[in-house]
Amino acid sequence: MGLGFAVFAGVSPEIIGTPAKEAERLGYTSFWVNHPGPMDGLAALAHAARETERIELGIGVIPLNTRGPESIAQGVKATGLPLDRLLLGVGSPNPDALKRVRAGVAELRRQLSSRVIVAALGPQMCRLAGEVADGVLFNWLTPEFARVAGDWVREGAAAAGRKPPRLCGYVRLALGPAARTKLDDEGARYAGIPAYAAHFERMGVKPVETAIAGDTVAAIRSGLARWHGALDEVVLRAITGSDTPEEHLELIRAARPT
Questions:
Q1: Beta strands per DSSP E along the chain
Q2: What is the rounded CA–CA span in Å between residue 54 and residue 24?
Q3: For residue 91, which of 45, 46, 136 has the smallest C-alpha distance?
Q4: Could you report the per-residue pLDDT of 190-229, keeping only the tens digit for each?
C-alpha cells in the first residue's frame, strides 16, 4: 500500500515545500494539496514541485463546475508542474456531475499527458471513475467502506474492458487535542454538505470515525494499520492545531512509511 501526505493549499509556501521535501526523504509515494475555493491549488502544488525530484504530486480536487478543463490545462502549463509526476484530481457536484466529469476527463486527456484522478463518493461516480480515470480519490470513508467503493470502481472498469484505476483515499490525520478540535470542526462542516451527509448516512458513521486521530505516535500507527489492504494508496490529510511547519513535520514523521 502506498502512503501519501496532503496539506491545505492555503498555508504558507514553507508549509508546503518543507513537508513535501521531508515526505520524499522518508519514502512517501505522493504529496498532495487541495483546491479550496478561489485559492489556486495548482500554484500551491508548484511549491512542492520546486522542493522535490521524485515524489508524485497530487491535487485533490479541482471542481469542473467552476473551472473548465481548458482553464485547468492552462494552469498546469503556467505553473510548470512536471506532467510525469502530476496526479491531476478533478470532480464535480450535481447536477450533471457524471456528464461533466466524463467530458472533462476526455478534454484533459486531449490537452495534457498527466494522469487524471476522479473524486468519487457514490456508486455511479465510482463506476464512471473506473471507466475513464487513471485513479480515484475517495474522501471521508472507513477502511470497510473503501472496499465497497473499490468494488464499484472495479465494476465500471470491467464494463469498459480496462484495468481498474488506482484507488486512493483522503484520510484525515490529527495528533493531539488541538488538532482533534479542528478535526471535529471540519467534520461538522462536511456533514452539512448534502452529498457528504448522504455519504455518512450510507456508511452509518460520523465524520470523525473515518479519521486517524490520537495523542501519541503509537495511536497514529495503530490507526494507520487498519487501512492496510483497503486501498492502493492512503493519502494522509494533515489536520494540525496551529498550521506550523513543525506540526506538519511531526505528523509526517509519526506516520512515516515502514
A1: 2-7, 30-33, 56-63, 86-91, 115-119, 135-139, 166-175, 212-214, 233-239
A2: 7
A3: 136
A4: 999 999 999 999 999 999 999 999 999 999 999 999 999 9
**Residue whose cell numbers read 457514490:** 122
Which amino acid, residue 14? E
Question: What pLDDT, in 10s, does the model give residues 223-249?
Answer: 999 999 999 999 999 999 999 999 999
C-alpha 23/C-alpha 163 separation (Å) is 29
| Rounded CA separation 191/207 (Å) | 7
pTM (2 d.p.): 0.96
CB neighbours of 5 closer than 8 A, spacing ≥ 6?
19, 23, 28, 30, 31, 32, 235, 236, 238, 251, 252, 255
The rounded distance, in Å, linking the Cα atoms of 112 and 114 is 6
